[in-house]
Fold Homodimeric dihydroxyacetone kinase.
Amino acid sequence: MTRLYDDPARFTEDMLSGFLDAYADYVVGVPGGVVRAAVPRAGKVGVVVGGGSGHYPAFCGVVGQGFSDGAVVGNVFTSPSAADAASVARAVDAGAGVLLTTGNYAGDVMNFNLAVDQLRAEGIDARYFAVTDDVASAPAAEITKRRGIAGDFTVFKTASAAAEAGYDLDGVERVAGLSNDRTRTLGVAFDGCTLPGEHEPLFTVPAGKMGLGLGIHGEPGVSEDAMPTASELAATLVDTLLAEIPVGAGSRVTAILNGLGRTKYEELFLLWGLVAQRLRDAGLEIVQPEVGELVTSLDMAGCSLTLMWLDEELERLWSAPADTPAYRKGSSATPTAAAQPRRGEGATDTPAHHSAVATLDAAALACGARVAGALDAMAARMAEMESELGHLDAIAGDGDHGRGMVRGTASAREAAITARDEGAGPGSVLTAAGESWAAKAGGTSGVLWGAGLVALGRRIGDDSAPGAESVVAGLRDGYQALTELGKAQPGDKTMLDSLLPFIDALDVAVKEGTHLWQAWDQAADRADEAALATAALRPKVGRARPLAERSVGTPDPGAISMAACLRAVGRALDDR
Amino acid sequence: MTRLYDDPARFTEDMLSGFLDAYADYVVGVPGGVVRAAVPRAGKVGVVVGGGSGHYPAFCGVVGQGFSDGAVVGNVFTSPSAADAASVARAVDAGAGVLLTTGNYAGDVMNFNLAVDQLRAEGIDARYFAVTDDVASAPAAEITKRRGIAGDFTVFKTASAAAEAGYDLDGVERVAGLSNDRTRTLGVAFDGCTLPGEHEPLFTVPAGKMGLGLGIHGEPGVSEDAMPTASELAATLVDTLLAEIPVGAGSRVTAILNGLGRTKYEELFLLWGLVAQRLRDAGLEIVQPEVGELVTSLDMAGCSLTLMWLDEELERLWSAPADTPAYRKGSSATPTAAAQPRRGEGATDTPAHHSAVATLDAAALACGARVAGALDAMAARMAEMESELGHLDAIAGDGDHGRGMVRGTASAREAAITARDEGAGPGSVLTAAGESWAAKAGGTSGVLWGAGLVALGRRIGDDSAPGAESVVAGLRDGYQALTELGKAQPGDKTMLDSLLPFIDALDVAVKEGTHLWQAWDQAADRADEAALATAALRPKVGRARPLAERSVGTPDPGAISMAACLRAVGRALDDR
């Protein structure tokens, strides 16, 4: 929802005032909107964009060199008045006329046409153009009834670049028409947005559903479907647009994958990878795409895909530099002397793991396989506990412990199984598992568990079957590695608080002659108790004070997961 | 929530793959992260930034000329591994060493320090620096325990600019330390974010509350307060930071007002206006501020204010050009020939209204005052109905009808009262009201109501008291103006559908000799019935087909508000 304001009735004025302050180098206010801070070049055609606010960067965010000369700024989701549109147009007129352009909405069409009448009566050559890119808003046979959504951006950009390049008003108007003819958009929404001062959203989409074709003001779409996977959504967006290839279109397109406000960059990039692949599979060449928030709808969840099929002229205009508050293309950053491109080196290489080089006897191989089995059991247990650990961690930390343990144990399992298959003994299996855990899981738990397993593996070695004392000594080595790296001590509310009682109990029981796996099971009981008892502790290392206070009363997720892993390992290895 | 993915376990890899595709001109992938597409300049110090993902543009969005050389990309909210950090650092090393820098989190500190050890063992001069800008995460006496949040951005930018400018590794490290010493951030959160694949948010903030000092992974803050107004929030943010002015600070600062993901640009600009004013009131000069999303937390609602106190060196480095996927400063856009700045012309001028020039008799003045009273009643009625009209409009439209009618009737009332006070008769009061409505409310209803009132006023004139026939004729003129402008006909599901039955009924009753206000009241009954009956209609003008279907069964909000206005006007004018 929209929360930040003093008086919702003054939301747009107050927003505009802050915008003008932040971008004083780019823009100044005029009655009805904003214009470039620099006076217009004599003889340049003016381009005025506009519509209601609530869509930033549309529309005031794209006023500047290479883009529009002015923006008319209406109230949230409301057309500006004819007087506002005429006022902004007058301010940018440099004697060569003005193109006023908006998305195709009844209010904008009426007000901007009235403004054009008024400007012409004053002797300013003014034209109006309405963008109609939204394929969901009317069938192809009624294309002039379609709404303008994120395709506003491609039309405004190319028409503005034409004006910057010195086209006359007829030429700028022609480019607007051409780029509109070549532009198609399909949008989807996952949840509504809330107008300033309202407590209920303007509209909602049921949980787990997607509104296909829903407009940027919540206008109903063509259907309500189950929430798709990213691949399914990419297919829907691409295939719908490719069913409407404009007349005369070639194989070069630009694309905008636009976020509506609450569907964030990471999600857009993920979706873009799938969209780009599908476009290329269809034989299209993608030129300078944009992935991000260009035409938003307050905090609405959703996104849209726009395609503009390029010809030589549109490609040149699309690629031209621009320098506006929200959109900058072309740079004066010092080029690197040796700015030669490097080849991609692949982002997803697998880190090297230790291969077992020596050939081991059957007992050592069997032991290695058992250790790999124990790591498999640990991974399975962490997958079960992911959500529980995440919630525990969220109370005082960043909530990533469950996901981190799943990532880590899964990586360890995979490396362990590969090592086993390559003939590794128990020590090498543990070393491979620890290295893979640290490398692939990251995070605090990753680096610590990794170091612990490597230390344990080093002590255990690849002898056929380590004795109970060797296991205990290996665990103490692992514990030592953890304390050196993590700088924590017992009582600091960390994984050490269940690991140390476990090792101590195991040590005593083994020395008393208890069978290793019986001793392990008893020690795991101690680890469980100790993990729960961390609820009474206050963390001391690497945590700021408010977190420390907050975590009191909650057991440490690292201590809990340590105890659970020790239990799972013991059960998997128990050969009694 | 985070919704777009195929497999949540592969979220980061898939995100990265789409990011690299979208910005292939800027970046290439290497194991563990991304680096600039251009090979590093020999002898340039490398700067590697990093941390978990989920914070875009942090951190991979700021790899490029003038900014970082590479970014290590961990899983969502999770430190990357030491192996990842070392891998990215190796890829950017150009013989002059590498500074690795992250926010101050235990996992990042451990992994990046391990990477530094490893790089040094390989003969690469590597250093690590942790940013500690979050004033809420530890008291000033324990400043090294503080987390790094949006202040990462100022530290990374200035250290990177130093490297670009040819500083050696000692110099780059010194700049990182200096800018960190000079940087302070306070963040607030209004609602949580949801990790990919999770169905519950990582944390929540109770409705109507604000978490003060809540971290970018949901780490608890210092207090939970009632949701403030924008002015109160600006005061809290500014005053808290100004209580911690760094040693040696002067009066020049830069600022980042950062959105966390769901607190959108319009809100940030509104807040910025208040923050900037308060900073200037405190005697500070603001240099090149940034307002937008620079360090996000998935779809978290909230924002943070960062201040960096500048000296000459930091100001130069902060102002240096940069060209990265998400952050570009300095432009090659063609400068305007006559690029002289224009003076601000004021964004909030009041449009001129018609003054009554002729001096009228007492009866005409009294009639003008009664009309102004009727417009006042209309505004009061629309204020009552705002929410109801908004919800009706949201079913098939963009939900702005209630807000638009409130804006419009309030503007009309204000202009009418001013005209009355200046001695206007009824016609001039109506004309002033209509012009103000159209100019200030915008939207479809604004332009139509404005034109209707102006036409009515023209017919009524400023004679002392118009007769009933003149009122009916004026309403018919208004109706005519609406149909010409709006291109709608009765039955198209618009305001005409209650206005026309009203006029017809009024006309008949007046002709039958019924007292005007009795006739008006009866006609208002007809208007109410007709407005409700629009539920059965399908809109025909300016609406796309899905909207038409969707609106069937719901009365038209324009017809409803028209009937309500007619009723309110009749009651206010009734002098029986």
About this structure: Chain B has 17 helices and 15 strands. The first strand of chain B starts at residue 27 and ends at 30. Chain B touches chain A through 177 residues (CB under 8 Å). Residues 252 and 285 of chain B are 5 Å apart (CA to CA).
